[in-house]
Amino acid sequence: RVDIAFLQETHLSTLEHLKMKVGWVGTIHDNPALGWKAGVVILIRKGVDFTVTRVYHDSEGRYLFLKGVLCGEELVLGALYGPHVWDRTFSRGVRRQLQAFGSIPILIGGDFNAVMDPMMDRSRGSSDWGSGGRALPSLCEACGLVDVWRSLHPSERDYSQLSQAHTTWSRIDYCLVTSELFTKVVDCEMAAVQ
């Protein structure tokens, strides 16, 4: 059962995103694709007690942050689709926005297009950080974010993306939370998309 889903790289307009409002979906929040690139969506199940108080997004369809109240607790939900090459403008913009939330707990799900640890998060472990450089670990450190799956599975390897060109697997999809939310995590698993 899914209560909140974070979708990224949808390549869709708002009109197309609204077509996702079927079955279990009660609310759709989106930052649509720009010229068929990027696009992020947060789907919230019918009956989930989440009230949005403010919406934050960039102009390129790369991130969406919903500040609101979930079951009486203030919270930020975020969906992020990182560029294939993290540039300073994107990194600074995300960091600035997350830091502006202050002490409000944050939950972000997304395709970050970067690895947290190249030795553990690539099938051919190496010290090469790739095009994202150390942008993702720097962001997590600056904003107090915890990589949920890695924290629960410190020595396991699992991957979310296959590079056919390089015949390697990488873990570039993450669930990141602030430490106060991490204490409430029961489990986090990586599952194959079907």
Structure explained in plain terms:
The protein is of the alpha+beta class and 194 residues long. Helix content is 19%, strand content 33%. It is built from 5 helices and 11 strands. The chain has helices spanning 14-18, 88-100, 135-143, 148-152, 179-182, and strands at 4-8, 25-31, 40-45, 50-57, 63-70, 73-81, 106-111, 145-147, 161-163, 168-170, 173-178. The strands form 3 sheets. Strands 4-5-6-7-11-8 form a 6-stranded mixed beta sheet. Strands 1-3-2 form a 3-stranded antiparallel beta sheet. Strands 9-10 form a two-stranded antiparallel sheet. The relative contact order is 0.13. The model has no long low-confidence stretch (mean pLDDT 90).
Please, how many helices?
Answer: 5
Largest sheet: 6 strands, mixed
| E-strand count | 11
* N-to-C CA distance: 15 Å
Order of helices and strands: EHEEEEEHEHEHEEEH
In percent terms, what proportion of residues is strand?
Answer: 25-35%
| Outline | globular
**Lateral strand order in the biggest sheet:** 4-5-6-7-11-8
Specify Rg, calculated over alpha carbons. 16 Å
Which class of secondary structure composition applies to the elements?
Answer: alpha+beta
Contiguous low-pLDDT stretches (5 residues minimum) are none
Record the SSE blueprint.
Blueprint: E1 4-8, H1 14-18, E2 25-31, E3 40-45, E4 50-57, E5 63-70, E6 73-81, H2 88-100, E7 106-111, H3 135-143, E8 145-147, H4 148-152, E9 161-163, E10 168-170, E11 173-178, H5 179-182
Parallel strand pairs: 6-7
Antiparallel strand pairs: 1-3, 2-3, 4-5, 5-6, 7-11, 8-11, 9-10
Helix pairs in contact: 2-3
